[in-house]
Task: structure prediction
Amino acid sequence: MSNNSIKLLAGDIHRSLAELVAERLGIPLSKVGIVRDSNRETSITIGESVRDEDVYIITQVGSGEVNDRILELLIMINACKTASARRITVVLPNFPYARQDRKDKSRAPITAKLMANMLETAGCYHVITMDLHASQIQGFFDVPVDNLYAEPSVVNYIKHNIDYKNAIIVSPDAGGAKRAAALADRLDLNFALIHKERARANEVSRMVLVGDVSNKICILVDDMADTCGTLAKAAETLLNDGKAQSVIAIVTHGILSGKACEIINNSKLDRVVCTNTVPLEDKMNNCPKLHQLDVSGVLAESIRRLHNGESVSYLFRNAPL
Amino acid sequence: MSSDNSPVRNLVILGGSSHPRLTDAICANLNISPAEASLHKFKNGETSVTIVNSVRDKDVYIVQSGSGRVNDNLVELLILISACKTASAKKVTVVTPLFPYSRQPDIPYTKTGAPLVAAKANSLNTPSQFTFESVPGTPRSSGKCDTGVSLATAASNALKQSASVSSLGGVVRPAMAREDSWVPEAPVREINNGYKQWIAQSGTLIAQLLTCAGADHIITMDLHDPQFQGFFDIPVDNLYGKPILQNYITSYIPDYQDAVIVSPDAGGAKRATAIADGLGMAFALIHKERRKTKSFVNGQTRQIANTMLVGDVAGKVCLIVDDLLDTANTVTRAAKLLKDQGAIKVYAIITHGVFSGEAIERIKASAIDKIVTTNSTPQIEHLKSLGSKLEVLDVARIFAEAIRRIHNGESVSMLFDYFTI
Result:
């Protein structure tokens, strides 16, 4: 192995994505021992030397023990830093706390900024993430951030798995219009928008459909699906008000917290396609409508390019197979 | 509540969700009511924080103990600090009676204060993980290098070899062949056996995180490592539990002058002798020797823990003094040893009673007659299960007084020595 080689690190929970990336790169994951002490503190051992190596820490943060994952990540970064790694890159496809990215009311924290500060403080030199909820989060960092897009992978998926000539791209809210419109342009498809009035977080009140979706396959596109209330209501609106043929949802980060699986099962959605930026294995079992889209190729390729000092922008338009 | 009408001007006390009772007690001592903050978790597990009262230009104190779900509480604390900072608080002081990650129980040599170097040297030079007497040795030949815990199969041999490679070469490159010889099922255990190379030392990290979130000042109590204060670039006031503990000893232990203060391990000797000296009491020390010795029967290594008592406790009342009770392993063992040596009664006097894991059961079955701890962590549940065996002392007054003094710019050092209830 050449000097200053890639080291891939991952925690012991949610390793699936890291394993896929490792397989694609042909590099085994380095050994990391995580011990959760009885006093609930986490102690981490890096089982290999990382001195002068190019370290990539791949972390999947889903729903549930978010804070535990964050602390594990921070401790791991710090361990590598103090162990004299040459460069530490955090691969955090689903950026935690991305939705708390602004001071939306008095005395509310900007937790995304705090996360950025903490990652840097711990010693991270570079961040690779995917479909940030707000791309402005990149500006919260003083270190370079590569915000990759799931869009090329989604385009591939639509082209191969959906009769897309008869489809229409729908954004479930005004905030996602840009993303949906970009995808519609890529596929040369029409575009519709659902405008919703949100009363409180995690709750949806009223939906208004803008655009003609009758007899079309509607592809709902969003960056994040949490409780899936929005998607389920949107599907209903599309089928009832818009007379659509069927509805498919494609989201980058399927956080699917709370009763999301139940909501999807009971909804009129044909299927929900999520990328594997968030661990879904356990949810796939009790939710047959859930499909997974592998983005490990993009992440692996970005790691390879980053390591070799090549441009990453190719990946913004193209997904490696 | 409006803090403008309160006796202490521009002072805001915020409580995290780890220990609301302590927050209330501190506020009661200061005669103000705690500021409101809505703390909850989103459905996806992320922490949500909103501070209800204004903190603009205020002196904010956030009370959060490093107990319970430590990581959740820590992140909540960080978000609270950051929220106060973005809401234009003048100064944010973190009041954390039990400092999170102040000790990593796996690694006894953190006490040296130069953790990573020590950790590295240990794994490179000495095959055993736990010794107080690890001497910097020369790299051994592979035959002599033992990984410590016996593994029955060929995997263990492979492991031994790889461990010895590491001890020889220092920096190990993972050859694919060696990769295969690793047993993939239980990575954690394997690493515990041979590779103790890069143990994450979270101390500095936690200090940096708190500073990075915006903390301007830290108030804590009985830090496990006093060196921890040096990890911060901001002032740290390390209060001592000693005055309260001393006060308990003099007031509630009959004929305390005849009792013996016992330190359960060498690391706590300084803390224990300080109390013994302060009260003019006798002192004894339990020395724990953890050595790996090779058994001649089957050639496997085995950890033999020798505990020795230095000092005379026969016919005496013993007071075990320590800063932190976690799994209660150390204390219960010490109590047994003391009783074996003829002690009449064994008290355990400990600043922070975390009681994690099976601590409660262990204590119930142990030779300890009474545990005295403080409410630096929530003790309600422990009181329920331990009953009269547990005595909880109140630290709220010390913290309240420290907050008052720091807020008013008075000296805190008086609290280090004299504090009477």
Notes: Chain A has two domains: 6-149+296-316, 151-293. The mean pLDDT of chain A is 90.
